[in-house]
Specification:
Layout: E1 12-15, H1 16-20, H2 37-46, E2 51-55, H3 56-59, H4 66-82, E3 86-91, H5 110-129, E4 134-137, E5 143-144, H6 152-173, E6 179-182, E7 192-193, H7 198-205, E8 214-216, H8 220-225, H9 230-239, E9 247-248, H10 267-279, E10 286-288, H11 300-324, H12 326-336, H13 346-350, H14 356-361, H15 366-378
Parallel strand pairs: 1-2, 1-10, 2-3, 4-6, 6-8, 9-10
Antiparallel strand pairs: 5-7
Helix pairs in contact: 2-4, 5-6, 9-10, 10-11
This protein binds D-xylulose (XUL) and manganese (II) ion.
Length: 381
């Protein structure tokens, strides 16, 4: 059996912000020492992590001089190269500063919208310098509590305009292969966020000037926060050919954004997500976007990092067992038969007779199938 030690081939990634997180929450300040982003890259590299994601501000503080910016990019590149690592997403932090308190892309203030756009352009430029090809937009503050203040019609229009503007920027700069993505989230920090789910985001993407170049980065916790099935959310993005990235973590449903270590909750749903992307041969980064507990000190952050990757590798091993389990596969085959292929033409179909009772009597084995899945996950199969 594997010892579950990650290698670059496993394509694991971490957001720099997850390592840099200092355990603060709305009720208390930081509980652990800061870590330098460059140091975070090297520490991840030493642990077999393949890639990083970041907000451009995680690496380059706002207001840095041009020389400091170049030095940070050069040093980040050097460290990534040293460990054979990649940068797979650079977004922008357009949510922390009070200037964005009522939104970035959807702000009523044209200057605030322009500032947000400037930050995203900077994210894309820095991404290009780091060999990255994705800008994932999570619009933390683009939402509302006070619906009287802004019509969602205005908000959707501005989000469309913003994404189109960024796409034109990418095209004008000739950044071939650079893509955009939306990371949906139902709420937090806003009472309601615009485009809360994968389905909502797909609706807006279809209306963009270049829908083919804008995809999704679903996050398991974001779906679970809304009480949705995260497995189905990821599958919808995959089915649409729009799974440009994926944020893995854990979350108790219908709560604040817990961002727990991957595998810490909802094991069965996490298992099905792993099975989905592994069986589909999806080659994107398996990015962990979670936070170490507030109780963790700086050293324990690395227990958190190792834990996320180990849980993924263990679940991947379970996927292999599931796919090789004769009883499970036998039940699945029975469920999929008889499949007579496509529907007949409507005229033939209209004249067909069905034995309703016989069809309704078919045994579906769901109880047995789910129990076998549970037992496999519990380690006795
Ligand atoms: C917030 C969240 C962000 C994005 C990056 O819930 O998931 O960390 O992934 O901006
Ligand atoms: Mn995320």
């Amino acid at each position: 059996m594997s010892d579950f030690v990650p290698t670059r081939e496993d394509r694991f990634a971490f957001g720099l912000w997850t390592i840099m997180n200092r355990g603060a929450d709305p009720f208390g300040g930081p509980t652990r020492e800061p870590i330098d982003p460059l140091e975070a890259i090297s520490e991840l590299g030493r642990r077999g992590v393949w890639a990083i994601e970041m907000h451009v501000e995680d690496l380059i503080p706002v207001g840095s001089s041009a020389a400091a910016r170049d030095r940070l990019i050069r040093e980040a590149r050097r460290r990534l190269d040293e460990y054979g690592m990649a940068c797979v997403n650079v977004g922008a932090n357009v949510f922390s500063h009070p200037v964005f308190r009522d939104g970035a892309l959807t702000s009523h203030d044209a200057k605030v919208r322009a500032l947000a756009m400037q930050r995203y352009m900077e994210a894309i430029d820095v991404g290009v310098e780091l060999g990255c090809t994705l800008c994932d937009l999570w619009w933390g503050r683009d939402g509302c509590e006070c619906d009287a203040a802004r019509s969602p019609l205005e908000a959707f229009k501005r989000l469309r305009e913003g994404l189109n503007y960024l796409q034109h920027y990418i095209d004008r700069r000739g950044y071939a292969g650079y893509r955009l993505a939306i990371e949906p989230k139902p709420n937090e920090p806003r009472g309601d966020a615009y485009l809360p789910t994968v389905g909502h985001a797909l609706g807006l993407i279809a209306m963009l000037d270049r829908p083919d170049n804008c995809g999704l980065v679903p996050e398991l916790a974001h779906a679970r926060m809304a009480g949705l099935n995260a497995f189905h959310e990821v599958a919808l993005a995959l089915d649409a050919g729009r799974l440009f990235g994926l944020h893995l973590n854990a979350q108790k449903p219908l709560r604040f954004d817990q961002d727990l270590r991957f595998g810490a909750e909802d094991l069965k749903e996490s298992f099905f997500v792993v099975r989905l992307i592994e069986d589909a041969g999806w080659t994107g980064a398996r990015t962990f976007d979670a936070h170490p507990y507030r109780t963790a000190d700086r050293e324990e952050v690395w227990d958190f990092v190792t834990g996320c990757m180990r849980s993924y590798l263990i679940l991947r091993e379970k996927v292999k067992r599931f796919n090789a389990d004769a009883e499970i596969q036998g039940l699945l085959r029975e469920l999929h038969e008889p499949d007579d292929g496509p529907l007949p033409d409507p005229q033939t179909l209209a004249g067909m007779h069905f034995d309703w009772d016989e069809l309704a009597r078919r045994r579906l084995h769901h109880e047995r199938l789910d129990q076998l899945t549970q037992e496999l996950l519990l380690g006795i199969r």
